[in-house]
Amino acid sequence: MADEVNALRFSLSGHPVALGFFLGFRLAALLTYIFGLIFTSNFVLIFIIVMLLLAADFWNTKNVSGRILVGLRWWNESSANGDSVWVFESADPQRQINGTDARFFWTTLYSTPVIWGLLALLAILKFELIWLSLVVIAVILSSTNAMAFTRCDRFGKANGIANSMFARSSRSIMQRFGGSILSRVYGGYSG
């Protein structure tokens, strides 16, 4: 019965392909890590596959799925004087966002770092510190996307961005919203 309800909810998506890729990359990375631990001890193979899936998920979420499913996109660039500039893009507020797409997007966006965090805790408890390196990367990537999309959503709502106009904010705006750690980590990042 629960599978039928979830299938029905997924069929209500306005963009099932984008939603499928969004969920697929995340699930594939998690399942590859979990089943890789069970069926093989080949760290290098699992590390490479999970890293490729995490990178694909990060890029897809940031540039494609976020834009299609909830009308948001973000990126970071360096200004001429070397400061880190966070750029937020929001769709026209008149655009109707599909409720199913938005629920799947936000629920998955916030639950993924929590799941990876629990896997990190498990790796620590089992003293599998080599696997912890992979899980920490997964936590950082998924948390970065979650935090940036949250700020993008807040920034778009607070400033009433319309018609795909760009909202530029410097590191000080990120810090005002509580992103000082990310600003420090990615301060010199220009991509």
Condensed summary:
This protein is mainly alpha-helical. It is built from seven helices and three strands, in the order αααββααβαα.
The computed structural class is mainly alpha
Measured between the Cα atoms of the first and last residue, the distance is 45 Å
**Multimer state:** single chain
Largest sheet, if any?
3 strands, antiparallel
Specify the number of helices: 7
- Helix percent reads 55-70%
**Amount of beta strand:** 5-15%
Total strand segments:
3
What number is the mean pLDDT? 79
Lateral arrangement of strands in the main beta sheet:
1-2-3
Protein name: Golgi apparatus membrane protein TVP23
Main location: Golgi
Subcellular location: Golgi apparatus membrane
Keywords: Golgi apparatus, Membrane, Transmembrane, Transmembrane helix
